[in-house]
Structure formats: C-alpha cells, structure tokens
C-alpha cells in the first residue's frame, strides 16, 4: 500500500469499499464496451504498465467526449473519472440519458465553478485512491478544442503526492478525429490508446504544498503524455485558449456580420 494511504501513526487505513452499479458491468461487458471495440477497434499499447491492483492515477490527454468510455472499455480494471458536474445536470432527455450513463459507469460529478472547485476535485480524487482504485484524470482540465495538448493543472500532482501513488501517463490518439468537440455521433476512425511507464514521485513525499514542486511534477506528467501522443504542445491552459478563441470569433462576427439574402 502506498505510504500516502497510511494514517499519520503509520497504520494502514482499511479500503473503504464503494459500491459499483450493476449497470456498470452491463455497459462494460455487454452493451457499450463490445460496441466501442467493434466500431473503433482500438489498438492498445503498454497495457502492462497498468498495475493489476492497488491505487494509481491514470493521467491522459483529453480530445473527445468518447474518451470517457473508450479507456474504461479497454482496461481490465475499473477506473473512476472525475467528470464535470454539467454532465449530470443537463436539461431534457439528452441530459437525463447522459447523467444516467455517467452515474451507471460509477463516475463522480465535480462542480468546477467557484474558488473551491479545485479542492473539491482533489478531495473526491483522494477518496477514490484511498479505496485502492484507479483514478482517471485529465490534467488539462477540459477537452482540447483543436487537438493540441495544453498545459496541465497541478491538481494531479497534489493527489499523486498526498496519496503517494504512481502516475501512469496515457495518450488517446485518433479520438479527436473520430469525435471532435461539438460532434454528437462519432465517425469510424482508427484509435490508439497508449499507456506509458508509471511515474514515481516518492522523492517529493511531503512536499505537496510547494508550488514549484507541484509545477515540476505536473510538467513531467504532461511531458510523458506528450511523448506518447506526439501532439503539438501549447504552454497555456486549455480553458484560457478556449475563451480567447471564443472572443476572436465573437469579434469576427461583429466585424463581418452576415448580410441578409435579398
């Protein structure tokens, strides 16, 4: 058991079992999993790097909505992702179906609004790791809007150091082309899911409050993902880049308004 999952006195906390919805197994082995493998025929590389048991973080790039389902479909172990709360609160039939799928898959909603959003995500993530499970994280914090890899947020480093668990880098390749943001129905496109050698940050134990250390750990994780995915890297947060792109589009619309057809 990783040192970070020990009580202060040195005694191991017993794993807190979390119930797994029955529909999770139906999705993985009967309904969605076989369909995803049939349609995308994902090529899996480096699966031996994912430990068969014990807590660990799988940190990957985030290119598509389908990432949430493809990775759990190919892993032998259950993996829990921290998903944005909007997936669980959408309006209408589509919103209810989306929420049902995410709840059934055992995913955890995280409210990303407000100043304490990051701390809430860290608490939830540490709770998953304390049970000895796999935790899936997208360090970019949101999907890439253009297929490039963006700067990682340090929450992944905080969790890795506090829990004392390894971080397994993962690259999703081809999912952006299969289902870019805004596309509801994915197209058939070759997909590769590539896992890298686990990263050990035990040398930084007890330093989770050092900003420079957190940045260095996060950058090492992002570099490992980049080496696997071979994406273009942007040293900027994805959310900032998205906001700037939206502003540019809004300005272009004001500058060049559509003329009514005569």
From TrEMBL:
Looking up CDD domains in the UniProt record yields: LPLAT_AGPAT-like
Keywords in alphabetical order, please: Acyltransferase, Transferase
Q: Which residues form the Phospholipid/glycerol acyltransferase domain?
A: 56-175
Q: What GO terms fall under cellular component here?
A: plasma membrane
Q: Extract one GO BP annotation from the record.
A: phosphatidic acid biosynthetic process
Please report the organism this UniProt entry assigns to the protein. Streptomyces griseoloalbus
Top-rank taxon: Bacteria
Asked whether the keyword Transcription regulation is assigned, the reply is no
The name under which this protein is listed is 1-acyl-sn-glycerol-3-phosphate acyltransferase
Q: What Enzyme Commission number does this protein have?
A: 2.3.1.51
Q: Which GO terms describe its molecular function?
A: 1-acylglycerol-3-phosphate O-acyltransferase activity
Under the heading Pfam families, the entry gives: Acyltransferase
């Amino acid at each position: 058991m990783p040192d970070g999952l020990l009580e202060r006195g040195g005694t191991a906390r017993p794993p807190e079992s979390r119930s797994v919805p029955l529909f999770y197994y139906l999705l993985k082995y009967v309904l969605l999993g076989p369909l995803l493998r049939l349609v995308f025929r994902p090529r899996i590389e480096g699966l031996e790097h994912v430990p068969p048991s014990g807590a660990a973080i799988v940190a990957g790039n985030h290119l598509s909505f389908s990432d949430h389902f493809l990775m759990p479909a190919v892993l032998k172990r259950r993996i829990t992702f921290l998903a944005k709360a909007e997936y669980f609160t959408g309006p209408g039939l589509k919103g209810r179906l989306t929420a049902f799928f995410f709840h059934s898959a055992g995913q955890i909603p995280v409210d990303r609004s407000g100043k304490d959003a990051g701390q809430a995500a860290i608490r939830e993530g540490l709770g998953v790791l304390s049970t000895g499970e796999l935790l899936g994280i997208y360090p970019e914090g949101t999907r890439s809007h253009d297929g490039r890899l963006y700067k990682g947020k340090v929450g992944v480093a905080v969790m890795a150091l506090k829990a004392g668990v390894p971080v397994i880098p993962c690259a999703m390749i081809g999912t952006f082309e299969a289902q870019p943001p805004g596309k509801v129905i994915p197209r058939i496109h070759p997909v590769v899911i590539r896992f890298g050698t686990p990263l050990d940050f035990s040398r930084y134990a007890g330093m989770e409050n050092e900003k420079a250390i957190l940045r260095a750990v996060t950058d090492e994780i992002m570099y490992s993902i980049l080496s696997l995915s071979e994406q273009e890297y942007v040293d900027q947060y994805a959310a900032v880049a998205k906001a700037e792109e939206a502003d540019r589009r809004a300005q272009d619309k004001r500058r060049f308004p559509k003329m009514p057809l005569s």
